[in-house]
Amino acid sequence: MGRCCFYAVGTLSLLLLVTSVTLLVARVFQKAVDQAIEKNIVLRNGSETFDSWKKPPLPVYIQFYFFNVTNPEEILSGEIPRVEEVGPYTYRSLDWWTADTCNMINGTDGDSFHPLITKDEVLYVFPSDFCRSVYITFSDFERVQGLPALRYKVPAEILANTSDNAGFCIPKGNCLGSGVLNVSVCKNGAPIIMSFPHFYQADEKFVSAIDGMHPNKEYHETFVDINPLTGIILRAAKRFQINVYVRKLDDFIETGNIRTLVFPVMYLNESVLIDKETASRLKSVVNTTMVITNIPYIILALGVFFGLIFTWLVCRGQGSMDEGTADERAPLIRT
């Protein structure tokens, strides 16, 4: 009976170890989970994903901040404009460019992303306010309502004055500088310049040209927190500023002394945060997935456990053989 138990433990340990290694190498459970997620994330009429896409359950809040001019008379005489931020007012609710690569539409509108995202990925979105595609890159690991998230941000290179962005200069070769984008070509010729709030990540010349600009990363940066398993947005803030290009007209006495500059009008902060009920349902899915994908490791742990028992039995049996009884240690033939 003891010998039978001895071999049974050894065989079980070996089988568990081989099974766990096979499952880990073949990624059986991980592939099954990935396929299930990809299948359920498809927009099909009547599915929960389709209903959420058609009528998003999460409230989206848009905050408007206006810049109130406090020295209009001094501006006309050539002094630096002084503005005061007013707000927020909160509510719920391409052949333009000079290079073919700039006219391409890449990515989604930013409402959702594909599942199984890794931090090494670069994600593309098309914000219609900027009339161009932009990319976002991984920044930090976050937790939102107890759920793991990857924080992606808009890098400064998007609006940098570099050769990669030369195709966005309108007219061709007329680049205003880093941190601003002339979108007049897609706004019916209106002299509208887009930037981040308070000229965040823009050249210092834009900030110093207006008295009252205070760029701040915490309040003026655009970011999105994405659950890497499902691609669902857990928290996001899209912030951009609308400016107008102002220049003096020598033929008009009233504007003859006005400085040529990019003048801020208002900026928007569009934000969303997953609610507790939705987060609870998503957390259940994430936890179940973690258990399933960790099954090979559980089997591996059991294999190691029974392997230790097998080793202990071997050592114990060897020790018993070495010690023996007094009669067993006595020589068979005495001289």
From TrEMBL:
Q: Which residues form a coiled coil?
A: none
Check the UniProt entry and state the signal peptide residues, or none: 1-26
Example of a GO cellular component annotation carried by this entry: lysosome
Where it sits in the cell: the answer is: Membrane
Tell me if Transmembrane is a UniProt keyword of this record: yes
Q: Which residues cross the membrane?
A: 295-315
Taken from the record, one Pfam family name reads: CD36
Molecular function terms from GO: scavenger receptor activity
Key words, A-Z: Glycoprotein, Membrane, Signal, Transmembrane, Transmembrane helix
UniProt superkingdom: Eukaryota
* InterPro entries for this protein: CD36_fam, LimpII
Of which family is this protein a member?
Answer: Belongs to the CD36 family.
Task: Please report the name of this protein according to its UniProt entry.
Answer: Scavenger receptor class B member 2
Traced from the root, the source organism's taxonomic lineage reads: Eukaryota, Metazoa, Chordata, Craniata, Vertebrata
Q: Which gene codes for it?
A: SCARB2
